[in-house]
Amino acid sequence: MSEELHYSTVVFKNPIISLLEEKKEEETVYAEVKGSAVTQRTPATAVDERPALHSQPFRGVAVCLGVLCVLLVSAIIGLYVYFSTALSEHNTKLVRELEQLTDERAFLLATNQDLTNLNSNLSTANHILRCDYSKVSTANQRLAAEKEALSRERDRLNWNLRYIYQFENFPVNQYCSPKDDVGERKCNPCRSGWMLFQSSCYQILYHSSPWNTWEQSRENCKKNHSDLLVIGSQTEQEFIHNHTQYYFDIHHGYWIGLTDIANVNQWLWVNGSHQTDGFWKRQTGGGNCVLTVPNNAPLANWNAESCSMQNRWICESRALLWSD
Q1: Record's InterPro entries (predicted)?
Q2: Could you say which DSSP state residue 154 is in?
């Protein structure tokens, strides 16, 4: 027996449309439906259950968001705790470093104060040393000057002694005055009748003296422990000119210790030195011995004459410088 298949068409009704139709019928037959509570609530329950199905995905999202918030808050709290701990440790380290720097600063200030005091003490000591050095330098200069003065006095006294030793009997009366009331003598640098100029004594023979040749004049000077005049400067030349007098004629004058007897035209003084700066006349006599002629110009009055010519002469000796 063959079975016969029957097909039927199943039409699914849209629940929303059904809901609207039911609501429309509810309004039409409101009075009839009001009495039956079971018939009225059955469609409403079906309608409320369907929206609940749509709210389930939002609950999952909310749960995820809640979990994320919890995790975020936990992470924030963890980071806060971590950074708070790190910041606290860093602050503690900074406080220790600040305390160390404060101690070092106090130490440096104390050291600087000590160095300042030391520098002040050294400056004071240096000033005292400078003052002492200045005093010592002044004293040293004074002592050096005194030493030099004593050396000069020693040399003068030694020269005086050597000069005195030339005499068999030193002519004390020619240098020194008679004893005074207390028995002391005052001695002069030059003998009586001699003139003092700078460190030399001069004997210029005037009217009462005889005339002599150059050689005789020098011998006469040597007898008096002196020698013919040696002129060493312009001031000495002017001094001699001012203290010599004209006599007899324009050719006569006073022999001085200059000659070229040993070598012609090589003028030598009696002390062995060469004549450099001379005070010659424009025209000389052509002799070998020199005399100074008073009536000529002060700086041009030397004349060379024959050594055998007789003239006056000028003797020179070193002055005796007595200690006080």
Answers
A1: C-type_lectin-like, C-type_lectin-like/link_sf, C-type_Lectin_Domain_Fam1, CTDL_fold
A2: H
Chain segment 14-72, per-residue pLDDT in tens = 545 555 555 555 555 444 444 444 444 444 444 455 555 556 678 888 889 888 999 99
- Pairwise CA distance, residues 14 & 53, whole Å: 17
What is the rounded CA–CA span in Å between residue 138 and residue 280? Answer: 49
DSSP one-letter string for 161-181? HHHHHT-SS--HHHHBPPP-T
Joined tokens for residue 130:
């400078």
> Which of the residue ranges 29-33, 86-90, 134-138, 289-293 would you say has the lowest mean pLDDT?
29-33
* Phi, psi angles (nearest 5°) of residue 274: -80, 145
The amino acid that residue 132 corresponds to is D
Instruction: Delineate the domains of the chain, giving CATH numbers in brackets.
Output: 14-44 (no CATH), 178-318 (3.10.100.10)
